[in-house]
C-alpha cells in the first residue's frame, strides 16, 4: 500500500506523529508531504530543516513541499490513502471549503478525484469553536475519515482537541475498508 503522509504546522504534535510515520513506513511505501508552514517555519519544537530531514530519513524519499509536486497525486493515482497528521484548524477549514492553495490541500484535492480515503488526525485549539463547523462538514463528506480525538486540556484550552495519534494505524485500516474507526470522540 502507498500512503501519503502530510504534516501541517501543529509543531507540538510532531513528537507523536513521527513515530507513527515510522511504524507505517516499516510496512508500506510512505510519501511525505509538508504544508508550507511545516516546511519553512522553525519553532521551539525544532527547525523546519530537522523535520524535513527526519521525514526523508523515515520514508527514504524527498518530502513534497510545493503544489506542483503534489498535483500529480491524483492523475497518476500515486496513493492508496492520504493521511493528514497533524491536521490543523487552518487545513480543516480549507478542506471543508474546497480550497487547494498549498501542497497538503492540493494533495487532498488531487487524491479525492480517485475516490480514495483521506484520514485526518485533528490538532487544533479551536475544534470546539470555529473549527467545529469544519469538522462537521468533513464528517458528512464521502472519503473523509478521522483518527479518534479528544480534548487535550479542558481546563486551560476548553475548545482544543487533538487526535490520539497512537490509534492512527487502526483508523487507517478502517478507512481502507470504507468505515470510520469508532468511537471518534475519546
Write up what this structure looks like.
- It is built from 8 helices and 7 strands.
- It is an alpha/beta fold.
- Helix 1 links the parallel strand 1 and strand 2.
- Helix 1 packs parallel to helix 3 and helix 5 packs across helix 7.
- It is globular, with a radius of gyration of 15 Å.
- The relative contact order is 0.16.
- The mean pLDDT is 97.
Quick overview:
The chain is of the alpha/beta class and 186 residues long. The chain has eight helices and seven strands; from the N terminus they run βαβαααβααβαβββα. The protein is 38% helix and 19% strand.
List the SSEs and their pairings.
Blueprint (H helix, E strand, L loop, with lengths): L1 E6 L6 H14 L1 E6 L1 H5 L7 H12 L7 H4 L10 E7 L1 H8 L6 H10 L5 E7 L6 H9 L4 E3 L2 E3 L9 E3 L4 H9 L10
Helix pairs in contact: 1-3, 5-7
Q: Per the principal axes of the C-alpha atoms, what is the gross shape?
A: globular
Largest sheet, strands/sense/barrel:
7 strands, mixed
Low-confidence stretches: none
Structural class label: alpha/beta
Helix share, percent: 25-40%
What labels describe this entry?
7-stranded mixed β-sheet, 186 residues, 38% helix, 7 strands, alpha/beta
Amino acid at each position: 500500500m502507498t500512503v501519503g503522509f502530510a504534516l501541517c504546522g501543529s509543531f507540538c504534535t510532531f513528537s507523536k506523529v513521527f513515530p507513527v510515520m515510522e511504524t507505517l513506513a516499516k510496512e508500506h511505501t510512505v510519501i511525505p508531504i509538508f504544508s508550507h508552514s511545516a516546511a519553512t517555519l522553525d519553532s521551539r519544537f525544532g527547525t523546519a530543516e530537522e523535520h524535513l530531514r527526519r521525514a526523508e530519513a523515515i520514508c527514504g524519499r524527498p518530502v513534497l513541499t510545493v503544489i506542483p509536486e503534489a498535483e500529480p497525486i491524483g492523475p497518476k493515482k500515486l496513493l492508496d490513502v492520504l493521511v493528514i497528521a497533524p491536521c490543523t484548524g487552518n487545513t480543516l477549514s480549507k478542506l471543508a471549503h474546497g480550497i487547494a492553495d498549498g501542497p497538503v490541500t492540493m494533495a487532498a484535492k488531487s487524491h479525492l478525484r480517485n475516490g480514495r480515503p483521506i484520514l485526518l488526525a485533528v490538532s487544533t485549539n479551536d475544534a470546539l469553536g470555529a473549527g467545529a463547523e469544519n469538522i462537521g462538514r468533513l464528517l458528512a463528506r464521502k472519503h473523509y475519515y478521522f483518527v479518534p480525538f479528544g480534548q487535550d486540556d479542558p481546563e486551560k484550552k476548553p475548545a482544543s482537541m487533538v487526535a490520539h495519534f497512537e490509534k492512527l494505524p487502526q483508523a487507517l485500516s478502517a478507512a481502507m475498508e470504507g468505515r470510520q474507526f469508532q468511537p471518534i470522540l475519546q
